[in-house]
Design the sequence.
């Protein structure tokens, strides 16, 4: 059996997106800045897609800027807010400990420039406390940036509540919604979001394309200087084919969202129940306040990379927050942020389901994980010490 | 391109000399769970020859493969030769490791050296008694 369960990393492009992209590349190859018909045709296509995307998140077309993806959108949003702050003498930014590195590394850069950064705790359940957030806001606060859905543990943040608090205090609110757009309903007006980042390849669009929503009145700073594309806020000839494919994928994902949620929630909960049977394991993140496609576990006494390679041999593609898979000595900052200690965080497994995942596939995954975890524990010195009582179990 | 060589995959999927020697003459454990790698080596030594060796490893595929390969390289060898085992020899025998995984071969070397030290200190204690 082949099961792709790493949709939080990237998704397979939908046929509609591929068809749209091909059509654009073959027939709409003009430069949108050119005056002749072929160029204007591309310009029209671009503006149509801008309208389509804006409509899905209840924004105005002129509030959408196309980017190279989620990371660029995150960078531009945060840098723009920081520049607005500088002009007003406001240099405090609030975020969370478990944001994506596109956010955290940008904040680190600002810290070196003199900004004060407050990273809110996300607690054991992986959810921000709105009261704590409100308490952290001060006169100097210019920006609050909190992700909509965490990319590793899938927990959903109280975005509308955060939006209301920020609006009440006159603070700009940005959300990295890369894991949410196309999967959860987004309404930037109702949720009072000022800026939002999205990435096409997380909802069956192509890689290398994304968008930034910035509410009218929030002045954007350029990351890329050059031509006057995107109202002068993002230079470079537009990736028309990619952008059109993104819009096609988003329309499709948004239309299927409710059905996907209903079906996948059952598969997710079935997986959680099955994997919980493995002794000394624990679900990471809140059991209910999480996106319907995400399952994330820690298994004590084993290391994640070994687990992934053995699962791959059984046809299952998944990911882990172990140090070996992060390319550093530390395991995932997300797992550390929810209080998992290093020893346990190395043994994590993230499954992010495809929309067509079934209970039969979940059964296969559960059996495979049980087998692989038991195998790795059979020659793990850590497991031996735990079982013999030499060390105490961390996960009961 | 695959992440690991065929040899690494072979030793990861079918690790040699896995297990424990209850009455080992030397035991060495290195690494820590915090960093995500722990190796434990057990040696049975007879007349200064390593007659048996077993290992247990908590870690990534290259850590498991490095342990397995290291045990193969020293099994049946005189203690003198085992003391000269380097991490490079382990990595080369595995047809190479990615740069950021070289520390796995270092751990394997260290685990064996530690087990040999344990053996020597036990020897000294025995002769003193």
Sequence:
């Amino acid at each position: 059996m082949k099961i792709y369960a790493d949709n939080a990393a990237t998704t397979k492009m939908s046929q509609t997106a591929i068809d749209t992209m091909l059509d654009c590349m073959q027939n709409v190859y003009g430069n949108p800045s050119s005056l002749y018909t072929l160029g204007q045709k591309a310009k029209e296509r671009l503006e149509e897609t801008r309208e389509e995307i804006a409509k899905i998140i209840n924004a105005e077309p002129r509030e959408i800027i196309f980017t190279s993806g989620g990371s660029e959108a995150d960078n531009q949003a945060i840098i723009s807010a920081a520049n607005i702050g500088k002009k007003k003498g406001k240099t405090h930014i609030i975020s969370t400990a478990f944001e994506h590195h596109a956010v955290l590394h940008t904040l680190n850069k600002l810290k070196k420039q003199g900004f004060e950064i407050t990273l809110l705790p996300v607690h054991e359940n992986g959810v921000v406390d709105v009261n704590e957030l409100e308490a952290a806001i001060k006169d100097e606060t210019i920006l609050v940036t909190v992700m909509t859905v965490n990319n590793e543990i899938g927990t959903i943040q109280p975005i509308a509540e955060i939006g209301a608090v920020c609006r009440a205090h006159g603070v700009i609110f940005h959300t990295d919604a890369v894991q949410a757009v196309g999967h959860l309903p987004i309404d930037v007006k109702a949720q009072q979001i000022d800026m939002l980042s999205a990435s096409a390849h997380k909802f069956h669009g192509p890689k290398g394309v994304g968008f930034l929503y910035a509410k009218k009145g929030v002045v954007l700073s350029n990351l890329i200087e050059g031509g006057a594309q995107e109202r002068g806020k993002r230079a470079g000839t537009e990736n028309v084919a990619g952008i059109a494919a993104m819009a096609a994928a988003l329309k499709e994902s948004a239309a299927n969202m409710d059905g996907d949620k209903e079906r996948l929630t059952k598969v997710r909960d079935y997986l959680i129940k099955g994997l919980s049977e493995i002794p000394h394991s624990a679900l990471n993140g809140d059991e209910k306040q999480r996106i319907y496609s995400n399952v994330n576990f820690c298994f004590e006494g084993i290391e994640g990379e070994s687990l992934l390679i053995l699962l791959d041999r059984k046809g299952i593609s998944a990911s882990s927050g172990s140090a070996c898979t992060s390319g550093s000595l530390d395991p995932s900052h997300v797992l550390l942020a929810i209080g998992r200690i290093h020893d346990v965080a190395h043994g994590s497994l993230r499954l992010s389901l495809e929309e067509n995942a079934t209970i039969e596939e979940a059964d296969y995954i559960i059996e495979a994980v049980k087998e692989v975890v038991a195998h790795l524990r059979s020659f793990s010195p850590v497991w031996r010490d735990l079982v013999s009582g030499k060390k105490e179990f961390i996960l009961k | 391109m695959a992440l690991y060589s065929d040899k690494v995959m072979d030793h990861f999927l079918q690790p040699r000399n896995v297990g424990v020697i209850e009455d080992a003459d030397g035991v060495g454990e290195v690494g820590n769970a915090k960093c995500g790698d722990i190796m434990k080596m057990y040696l049975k030594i007879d007349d200064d020859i390593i007659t048996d060796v077993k290992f247990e490893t908590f870690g990534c595929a290259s850590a498991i493969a490095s342990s397995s390969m290291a045990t193969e390289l020293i099994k049946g060898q005189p203690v003198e030769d085992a003391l000269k085992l380097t991490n490079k020899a382990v990595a080369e025998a595995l047809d190479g490791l990615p740069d950021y995984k070289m520390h796995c071969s270092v751990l394997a070397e260290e685990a064996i050296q530690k087990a040999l030290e344990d053996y020597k200190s036990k020897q000294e204690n025995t002769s003193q008694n």
